[in-house]
Design a protein that fits this description.
By secondary structure, this protein is α+β, with helices and mostly antiparallel strands. It contains 20 helices and 14 strands. It has four domains: about 220 residues, no CATH class; about 150 residues, no CATH class; about 140 residues, no CATH class; about 60 residues, no CATH class. The radius of gyration is 25 Å and the shape is globular.
Length: about 600
């Protein structure tokens, strides 16, 4: 039963201490008032043990928790404030049933919420028992006009975990008899998420980010995460599944209000029906663009229709099963014990079904009666989704070649068919698999791709500056072959030779068209492509395999939070693939230290993996 505790509010007060901004993160959140059905509330207590293992100084400044000129160093006052704010554990149902007592001085005044959202692995299949199983929301902060949500993973076992739903009982936090149900998170999980999410963020891929890692004994941790809006599609799909119009309408109104306040949807129409259409157009664009980006950047993010592992703006959340491949390993599937995941090429189907579900949802909101999902299979919006997806795929490939924004726009507007022809040859090589077939890998199965197309995009413009003729078939294959390719994989049949010819012909034709349009010579354009493509298609590009090894390496480094942050910060510089953002090393005091060199060697060793 809800109590008046869910009306926690932040009491405005004069900020006079450099770390007083942290005090806003006290469990208060407007979702409690707007959508009381959307969460379960918990009292929390301060943990005595624990220390700050990692703190993202840059993100803290972006959130306004630190002043811009604050040194990127930990001090006693800052660490104390971080621990006071985030080093907490919930007083859950197990504690209350067993009348477990805690010192009154350790119990915080406000309650914290674990939000409800749909997870289809729960027995109810309606979101009545599922949601944040080991997380609570700390609250929100506003800085430079953007309001951020902050949540913490590893703060105790809530009633919304799969274990509680399946076994129909409540669990003690830290119960060793269960895994994902004990309410705990691990330090390596936090380091992996921090590293991976910052790589994604640097390269323009939407994601939640890690603010802090609070270390406890036995490798356990509390991992603190931030994003401008932590609402997931599955937050909507719970009331949709339950046919609960009032609950769904409140969730929709809350989400739109936040998007407008943050300035993301400043042009949202006043008319209610027009607003729903606006929402749908946004969702089609967001998820078509997102899934095209995932496919082209070789990002595996297990998309399923309940929208449990992404946010409403397409941001990645929960890096437990997220990977970035070195090649287009489109047959990789994650083994989730009960079932295998989707593959990277199937993510489009899942994203499109998400959009179809949003169509069903807005129809429900318009008419107050829910129609079957099949009723919306032929919606015009789904055709628009396909168009956006195909356009984005063409755009992404031109960018990967190295064309700048104006050149990409010119080719898409004037020579779209040529772009599509080039993409067909590129995709042919990208998708070829080894004759060895499906093999077991550490966390699933894979049928290895054999060609590294980033290598040809990086090397080709440089080579063509200094020769008049195309590469021979053998030279072309020599550049693109990976360590997964066997001798038989590399045999040149007639069709493969035709694709090599098509690739080179269309590539150079696009270069010539751009040169003519800009009144420059071909070699000048090739030089520009060489410089940009060398950054975009960097040889030592991080993969999921590399992240696993790098995390182990970082955990073995016996340093404090300052040094851990610096090593990760300096390493991340070398994973920046945006040529417009590359800066001189000396200017930003990036040191290629022994630790950073070791991490880069790991990236190089696993560059073709999953």
């Amino acid at each position: 039963m809800k109590t008046s505790l869910h009306h926690n509010k932040i009491v405005p007060k004069k900020i006079c201490h450099p770390y007083d901004q942290f005090e806003q993160l006290n469990g208060s959140h407007p979702l409690k008032n707007h959508v009381p059905e959307a969460y379960v509330e918990y009292k929390v207590r301060q943990k005595k043990s624990g220390k700050v293992y990692y703190f993202n100084f840059a993100l803290a400044k972006q959130l306004g928790l630190l002043e811009e000129d604050h040194p990127e160093k930990m001090n006693a006052g800052l660490e104390k404030k971080i621990l006071e704010t985030f080093n907490i554990v919930i007083i859950n149902e197990y504690d209350n049933i067993h009348n477990i007592k805690h010192p009154p001085g350790t119990i915080k005044e406000n309650t914290y919420m674990a939000t409800r959202y749909l997870q289809l692995q729960h027995p109810s299949k309606q979101g009545k028992t599922s949601g944040d199983g080991r997380s609570v929301w700390n609250g929100q902060v506003t800085h430079h006009g953007i309001t951020w949500d902050i949540s913490s993973c590893g703060t105790g076992a809530t009633r919304l975990s799969p274990a509680s739903a399946k076994q129909k009982k409540f669990f003690k936090t830290g119960d060793p008899s269960i895994s994902y149900g004990c309410g705990c998170s691990e330090k390596d999980e936090g380091v992996s998420s921090s590293l991976f999410s910052e790589v994604m963020y640097l390269n323009g891929i939407r994601t939640e980010r890690v603010l802090a890692i609070i270390e406890h004994n036995n490798g356990l941790a509390i991992n603190v995460r931030a994003h401008p809006n932590l609402i997931r599609p599955s937050h909507f799909f719970a009331p949709l599944k339950q046919n609960n119009y009032e609950y769904l309408k409140k969730m929709y109104d809350y989400y739109v209000k936040r998007q407008k306040e943050n300035g993301f949807w400043s042009d949202y129409p006043k008319d209610e029906i027009a607003g729903y259409d606006y929402f749908l157009a946004k969702m089609a664009n967001v998820f078509a663009t997102m899934v095209a980006q995932f496919e082209d950047e070789y990002i595996f993010c297990w998309l399923d229709w309940d929208g449990d592992n992404i946010l409403m703006d397409g941001s990645i959340i929960d890096y437990g099963s997220v990977r970035q491949f070195g090649l287009f390993h489109h047959e990789y599937r994650y083994d989730d014990v009960e079932r295998y995941s989707t593959s990277i090429s199937e993510q489009k189907i899942k994203a499109k079904y998400l959009v179809q579900t949003f169509v069903q949802m807005t129809d429900f909101l318009k008419n107050k009666a829910k129609r079957p999902i099949k009723s919306f299979e032929h919606q015009g919006l789904l055709k628009e989704f396909d168009k956006i997806f195909e356009f984005q795929k063409d755009k992404n490939l031109l960018f990967k070649i190295g064309f700048n924004n104006s050149q990409v726009a010119y080719l898409l507007h004037k020579h779209r068919k040529m772009v599509r022809d080039f993409r067909s040859s590129f995709s042919y090589f990208e998708r070829i698999k080894s004759i060895k077939g499906i093999k077991k890998v550490a966390d699933g199965i894979n049928w290895s791709a054999i060609f590294c197309m980033r290598d040809i995009l990086r090397e080709y413009p440089q080579i063509m500056q200094f020769r008049e003729s195309f590469l021979t078939n053998e030279e072309f294959v020599e550049i693109i072959k990976s360590s997964y390719a066997t001798r038989k994989d590399l045999l040149l049949n007639q069709y493969r030779k035709q694709m090599i010819s098509l690739f080179q012909d269309k590539y150079m034709h696009m270069v010539k068209l751009v040169a003519i349009n800009l009144k420059k010579n071909v070699k000048h354009i090739l030089c520009e492509l060489t410089m940009r493509s060398s950054v975009i298609n960097k040889y030592d590009r991080i993969t999921g395999d590399a992240v696993t090894i790098i995390v182990d390496k970082i955990l073995s480094i016996k340093h404090g939070p300052d040094e851990i942050y610096k090593i990760m910060h300096d390493f991340l510089y070398f994973q920046n693939h945006d040529p417009s953002k590359i800066r001189k090393l000396e200017r930003h005091k990036i040191k290629n230290t022994k630790e950073v060199k070791n991490l880069l060697e790991i990236v190089r060793s696993y560059r073709e993996g999953i």
